[in-house]
Amino acid sequence: MGVLAGLVLLGAAALAQHSGLTDIRGYFEILVAPGKAITGTVSDCSTGQPLRLKQVTVTPLGPLDIGTRVRVEVSGYQADTFRIRTMASSWGPGGSYVTYNLEDICLNPSGPGGWQLLQLPGVDFGQVAVGTTETITYTFQNPLLEQIT
Q1: CA atoms within 13 A on the CB side of 49
Q2: Considering the entire predicted model, what is its pTM?
Q3: 18 neighbors 57 (Cβ within 8 angstroms)
Q4: Is the CB of residue 100 less than 8 Å from the CB of residue 39?
Q5: Which backbone phi and psi does 98 adopt, to 5 degrees?
Q6: What contacts 24, CB < 8 A, 6 or more positions away?
Q7: Residue 131 domain-assigned?
C-alpha cells in the first residue's frame, strides 16, 4: 500500500498547475519546483503577436525532461500541449537551477472566431434609368486581420 500511495502522490505532483506572467515579448519563466522552471515565449497563432503581460498556467504531464508534454493555458485562448524542447542547468552557491524550455509556441484564440456582425445602412437608389449604374463600396474587416476575398 505504501508504494501505491507514493505513486499516487507522484502522479498528483506531476499534474500540478503553476502560473506566472509573460513579459512584453510574451516570454515566461514559471517556477514549478524548487530550482526548476518551465520557460517559453507564447504568441497568438492567428496574428503572430506576442501575448504580452498575460497570465500563463503550465501543467507538466509527466516528470520534467526533454520531450515531456506540458499543457499551456492563457485566458481567451485555446489550451494546448507542447513538448519540452531544451533544458539548461546552472549551479551556484545557492544550489542548482534547471530551466525546461518549450521555446516559441502559439495559442489559437478561443470562441467563435471573434467575428463582429455589423448592420450596414440600407441604400435607396431612387429612380435609376436603365443603363446607368451607381456603385457603393463597403470595407469589411475582422479582428483577426485576415484577408477577406
Answers
A1: 11
A2: 0.66
A3: yes
A4: yes
A5: -120, 130
A6: 50, 52, 53
A7: no
Indicate the helix (H) or strand (E) that contains 12. helix 2-14
pLDDT above 90 covers a percentage of the chain that reads 60
Do residues 53 and 25 lie in contact, with contact meaning Cβ atoms separated by under 8 Å?
no
CA distances from 114 to 43, 54, 72 (A): 17, 19, 21
Angstrom distance (rounded) from CA 134 to CA 64: 66
Q: Domain for residue 125, yes or no? A: no
3-state secondary structure of 106: strand
The domain of 62 spans 2-107
Give me the number of domains the chain comprises. Answer: 1
Cα–Cα distances (Å) from 41 to 27, 74, 98, 143, in that order, read: 4, 12, 17, 23
Cα–Cα distance, 6 to 123 (Å, whole number)? 73
Identify whether 137 is part of a domain.
no
Model confidence over 63-83: pLDDT tens digits?
Answer: 999 999 999 999 999 999 999
Task: Please state, as a whole number, how many other Cβ atoms lie within 10 Å of the Cβ of residue 20.
Answer: 17
CA distance 125 to 21: 55
Residue with cell 545557492: 94
Residue 128, domain member (yes or no): no
